[in-house]
Structure formats: structure tokens, C-alpha cells
Design brief:
- With 274 residues, this protein is mainly beta.
- It has one domain: Porin.
- α3 packs across α4.
- It is built from 4 helices and 10 strands; from the N terminus they run αβββαβββββααββ.
- The radius of gyration is 25 Å and the shape is elongated.
Length: 274
């Protein structure tokens, strides 16, 4: 009888108390907004948000350490219409870029996070890692969006356009909340610091318009230099004159909320029989 009482207490402990060893996989997804920082929007702004979605595969090594794989999609955009700087407003560049990412990262919980626990059911966390980005910059033109990379808008020779894939450093953090043993909700901010200056198709100088027209056509010229009529900055659009800042790479950030399903192991503490 005594042993049965011990066993009952053991099972109740497994059901209601935090357990100190857990390993296993989580899968989930998230949705939110994407914000761009680069040549057309040098500082982070909420004026031009885009869509962000992602899926996650995570492995919990214990209550604090997690490795994660992620695939995601972000729609980032920018327009000189919102610029405070007069030169940039007259430059009148704009873009919309589709970005697909594949990343791996190491995540650390600041507090122990135990699935199914009532006392340790939330934890702030941060993560660092790396990503590969596949990106397709486009721009609006007469009611449709045109892919910019094939146009060589900064005079790139055919076959020497900037590549469609770039690496990125990944970093971020957030909060996770335990809803049940299997389900949790996650609020997260991610930053992708890319190793390219062309997420927005802007990074160098204006090309020679006559040469660009002969090689790529009139459409390439119009999207290379859509500047507004002006007299204040006569060099806008002139070959060799600055079109973008080639010093800093482009970045984007995502702010998302998502859910995770945990189907790993939660071990109960061992009981020593008297």
C-alpha cells in the first residue's frame, strides 16, 4: 500500500510540477510585419511596413538552450516619397522586394522554460545565427511591378548583375509563453543584416543613360532615374553621380507573433524508494 501511495505522488508530480529535464522538437509558424533599412530608408520607420511569415523547427536541449531552423518570407518596401531630405525626395526612387530566407540560429532563454509548467511558463530569450536570402527587387511602373535586377539600373553589364542570393547575420529576441504542455505562443523581433547593398536595387552611381538605353532599353532608363523635375540638384541622374550609399549594407527587421507545438520528452524526477 505504501508503494502505491508513492507511485500516485510520483504521477501527480509528473502532471503538475515543473520538470528539470526536457528534450525534444517543436514546430510552428508566425506572421507579422517586415521593416526595411537601407539607401531609401536610412533609419527604421513604421511608415512602409510589409508582410512577414515564417515556419520554425526547433530542438530543445534543456530548459534554456534551443537550436532552431527557420524558413521565411518577407515583403520589404521603401519610397523616397516619405524622405525628410529634399535630395532623396527629388531622387524619387521606390522599390518592393520579395525575400525568402533560410536560417539557423542558437537560442538562449534567460529563464528556465518548461513545457506544461505553471510556475515557469514564460521566458524572455535572444538568438544569433546566420541566414541565406533569395531576393527579387521590383518597382512599380504603369500599374505593374517590374523586376529590377535584369535591367541593370546602375549600368551593370549583362551577366554581371548583382547576385539574387546573399548571406545575412541573424539576431533577435522575444518572449515565449507556455499555454499547455504542447502549445506555446511566441512574440519575436528578428533582424537580418544582409551582406548585400541591393535588397532595394540601390547601391552605387547613376549609369550613362545612352549606353543603358542601347543595352537594356528605355524601361531600364526610366526606372534607373525616375527623378522629379527640379533645378536644385542638377546632378541627379548624371552618369557617375551618387545614386545610393555603397558603404552600408541593407537590413530588414520582422516583428511577429506565432505558435509552437512541442512533441518532445518531458522527464519526471526520479523517485528513490525507501
Amino acid at each position: 500500500m505504501y508503494r502505491w501511495k508513492i507511485l500516485l505522488l510520483f504521477l501527480l508530480g509528473c502532471s503538475f510540477f515543473a520538470l528539470h529535464a526536457q528534450r525534444g522538437w517543436e514546430v510552428g509558424g508566425s506572421v507579422g510585419t517586415a521593416l526595411y533599412v537601407g539607401d531609401i530608408a536610412p533609419t527604421l520607420s513604421l511608415k512602409q511596413p510589409g508582410l512577414s511569415t515564417s515556419w520554425h523547427l526547433r530542438y530543445n536541449w534543456d530548459t534554456r538552450l534551443v537550436t532552431r531552423l527557420q524558413g521565411g518570407y518577407a515583403l520589404i518596401r521603401g519610397s523616397d516619397v516619405f524622405a525628410q531630405n529634399t535630395y532623396r525626395r527629388l531622387r524619387n526612387l521606390r522599390f518592393l522586394t520579395h525575400v525568402v530566407d533560410l536560417s539557423a540560429a542558437l537560442e538562449l532563454n534567460f529563464l528556465p522554460f518548461i513545457h506544461g509548467s505553471y510556475s515557469e511558463r514564460f521566458a524572455p530569450f535572444f538568438f544569433v545565427g546566420g541566414a541565406l536570402l533569395y531576393y527579387v527587387p521590383t518597382a512599380p511602373y504603369r500599374g505593374r511591378y517590374v523586376s529590377l535586377r535584369p535591367l541593370g539600373t546602375e549600368g551593370q553589364a549583362r551577366g554581371n548583375e548583382y547576385p539574387p542570393i546573399a548571406g545575412a547575420a541573424l539576431f533577435g529576441g522575444g518572449l515565449k509563453f507556455n499555454l499547455s504542455r504542447s502549445w506555446s505562443i511566441v512574440f519575436e523581433v528578428q533582424g537580418f543584416r544582409s551582406f548585400t547593398d541591393y535588397l532595394d536595387d540601390v547601391g552605387g552611381t547613376y549609369p550613362d543613360k545612352a549606353q543603358l538605353r542601347s543595352q537594356r532599353g528605355t524601361l531600364a532608363v526610366e526606372l534607373s532615374d525616375p527623378s522629379l523635375p527640379h533645378g536644385e540638384y542638377p546632378n541627379i541622374g548624371t552618369a557617375g553621380y551618387q545614386r545610393g550609399d555603397n558603404i552600408d549594407y541593407d537590413s530588414y527587421f520582422t516583428i511577429t507573433v506565432g505558435s509552437l507545438y512541442y512533441f518532445g520528452r518531458i522527464d519526471c524526477p526520479k523517485i528513490l524508494y525507501p
